Amino acid sequence: MTAPSVAIIGGGLSGLASALFVRDDRRFGEVAIFEGTSAVGGVIRSHVEDGFLFEEGAESMSRVRPAAVALCNRLGVPLMPARISPSATQVVIDGKLVALPSGLEIMAASSYWPLVASPLLKWADRWDEAQGEAAADPVPSDVTARLSQLFAAPVGGMGAVVDALQEELTDVSIRTDAPVSLLRPEDGKWLVGAAGIVPSHYDAVIVALPVPAAAVLSAQVDPGLAAELGEVRSHSVVSVNVAWRREDVPEHLHECPGFLVPEREGKLISYCAFSSSAWRGRSDSAHITLRVLARGDGSLLALPDEELFGAIWAELQDLLGITAEPRLRHLVRHPWALPDFDIQHAPRLGRIEDRLVRLRGLALGGSLWRGPGMSNVIESATRAVRKITGDLEPWPDPV
After folding, report:
1. Is the CB of residue 373 less than 8 Å from the CB of residue 185?
2. Which of 47, 73, 229, 252 is most buried by its number of CB atoms within 10 A?
3. Does domain 53-60+83-153+234-340 have CATH number 3.40.980.10?
4. What is the chain's alpha carbon radius of gyration, rounded to the nearest angstrom?
5. What residue ranges of the chain are covered by domains with CATH 3.90.660.20?
6. What average pLDDT does the chain have?
7. Tens digits of per-residue pLDDT, 132-174?
């Protein structure tokens, strides 16, 4: 009996991890990844320019949720701890930077990517003026030492994880520039069709796409599932990395960890992290580098690069007081990359699970279940593989 075949739709971190976990389970046979863009990795990419390492998506992983660290260990990707600044992380309140209160210094670890659309930024919306005016005490050195062990990043940048996965998955068919437009059950299997590829049947399918794309594709399978997915609000994100000469940056910012911007402030910027303060090897001693995420809807992505950077640059000047033009800048767009989990999300997930139970051999990965953090999407891959495994059991032992 032929071992079950699996199609994975989406070649981001969740899709690649799903392929690894399926491939490692010897009960499966053919594994194919369909990625709609020209490269796998999704938002996990590192850009190197003139000796600077700029992260385009996530910039770190948490040791508290160890799935990402475990994957790096499995792939042989070396990690380094974060350097926690003794200065307090700040939050923008009424257009001004205010230090976070003592107890929230953990956010100084430059692990903001999962927070951009999280309730923590909405918490700042409800912070009253009296609290906002109270400056935080510097983080004690012993606390700083402990916190630095909670966050880690690959020595060569987050893109090293994607590179290692590709090297490991040499026996998996990875098809880029192949957006899937056809997905439907047929004769007890799943018919998958992608641009430029003859449709093929698979025993199981894992959809590891951004939530809006998953909603569109699932409409062919179950309109009710598509409707539930369509209720998940998603943000598009623009990631901007900037490098200045150290002498062009005010001295009080040299060891600044960064700041958060709640939605009520009405700014493009959601957060800013000084990557040169947090991570060794991403800059040199003569420069200060920072990374900004700007959050918005489709209109954000429609702006030309110069206009978009100009708007973000104006907000940085206003908040940080840096007037010198940066030496380098690197801008990248992530359409609909971050789901926003409102108070209805938990019951919505329950309804989505109920519908998936009826769809034998179909699972959803990606950031839907827990959000966009690296460990979160790796755990979603484990969840997806467990679902299709349960659907397709019992299988005969491999020959």
Report:
1. no
2. 229
3. no
4. 22
5. 53-60+83-153+234-340
6. 86
7. 333 334 444 444 445 556 789 999 999 999 999 999 999 999 9
Ramachandran bin of 347, using left for φ above 0, alpha for ψ from -120 to 50, beta for the remaining angles: alpha
Residues of the chain with pLDDT > 70, as a percent, come to 85
16/35 Cα distance (integer angstroms): 10
Token representation of residue 314: 């104006």
The fold of the 6-43+160-232+342-392 domain, in CATH, is FAD/NAD(P)-binding domain (3.50.50)
Q: Percent of the chain at pLDDT above 90? A: 60
Angle 146-68-378 from CA coordinates, rounded to 5°: 140
**What does the DSSP assignment read for 281-350?**
TSS-TTEEEEEEEEEE-HHHHHS-HHHHHHHHHHHHHHHH---SPPSEEEEEEEEEEEEE--TTHHHHHH
